[in-house]
């Protein structure tokens, strides 16, 4: 009897992609066929994975895994149905081996891929991707950015503007691709001061509610950001991580350090390469593997977007 693992729409899209790495590891070790039921399957193809909701059979000999430890992972072969509700649990070596396989399995549907290509056809001008995560990532109101005090801390406008100003000084002809949650009208300060644009593809999803939802198609945003070789990112965001580090060609990431104030704005940069979420979170929160940006000359030089992989 065929065994299955299921990933439903239990968290955000890029957290589910981390869960998919776990599902690939379970399949490689224990043989479970992977089944997903995500709203984004109307835009995203995942090679080797079936799009199917859990049925009655999925409750037979079932286990739900959230905080999966090594012992639990090794005994998953005993279960016909594994419901994945967490992101981690596979041995590091196995998960690291599965990550590029997951990245290679992901493709935009052709029409959406063509929309991204057309959007990014900027006349050979350098491009920087900007991921602005709000919603459940909230902006501190005291002029402070501190990941120790607030687990999910949004990058405030004053830090985004500081980074964009330095990038503009480094590369005067640069354009900025803005990928944001909420209404893009909330980010007028960015559009008013710099040459900014968004992917012109309307989001069909209303399940996240105002503020956290995006007016632009989030899957298009994810793949468009992954076409940029420099990304101004939101620390500890899995969306920033998958766009900058996993999909496409790994980018140079610019982000705030773990603690900074508006009286002395600072940024750091790193290039992690294709790696899993825990390493990104360590770089974001603990500053492991990052370099301080002292001035515009420390900024990476952005290039034209690369869309050949879409």
What does this structure look like?
The chain has 310 residues and is of the alpha/beta class. 30% of the residues lie in helices and 19% in strands. It contains nine helices and 16 strands.
List the helices and strands and how they pair.
Elements: E1 4-8, H1 13-30, E2 33-37, E3 44-46, E4 50-51, E5 62-65, H2 70-74, E6 81-84, H3 92-105, E7 106-108, H4 110-119, E8 127-132, E9 144-146, H5 157-170, E10 175-180, H6 188-193, E11 196-197, H7 218-225, E12 230-232, H8 238-246, E13 252-255, E14 259-261, E15 267-270, H9 277-286, E16 291-293
Parallel strand pairs: 1-2, 1-6, 2-4, 5-6, 8-10, 8-12, 10-11, 12-13
Antiparallel strand pairs: 3-7, 9-14, 13-15, 15-16
Helix pairs in contact: 1-3, 1-8, 4-7, 7-8
- Total helical segments: 9
How would you sum up the major sheet? 7 strands, mixed
Instruction: Give me the strand/helix succession.
Output: EHEEEEHEHEHEEHEHEHEHEEEHE
Estimated helix fraction: 25-40%
- Approximate strand percentage: 15-25%
**Averaged pLDDT:** 93
- Multimeric state of these chains? single chain
**How many individual β-strands?**
16
The rounded distance between the terminal residues' Cα atoms is 36 Å
Write out the strand line-up for the largest beta sheet, numbering strands in chain order. 11-10-8-12-13-15-16
Apparent shape = globular
- Poorly predicted runs are none
Judged by helices, strands and strand pairing, the structural class is alpha/beta
Radius of gyration: 20 Å
In short:
This protein has 310 residues and is an alpha/beta fold.
Main attributes of the structure:
310 residues, alpha/beta, 7-stranded mixed sheet, 5-stranded parallel sheet, 9 helices, globular
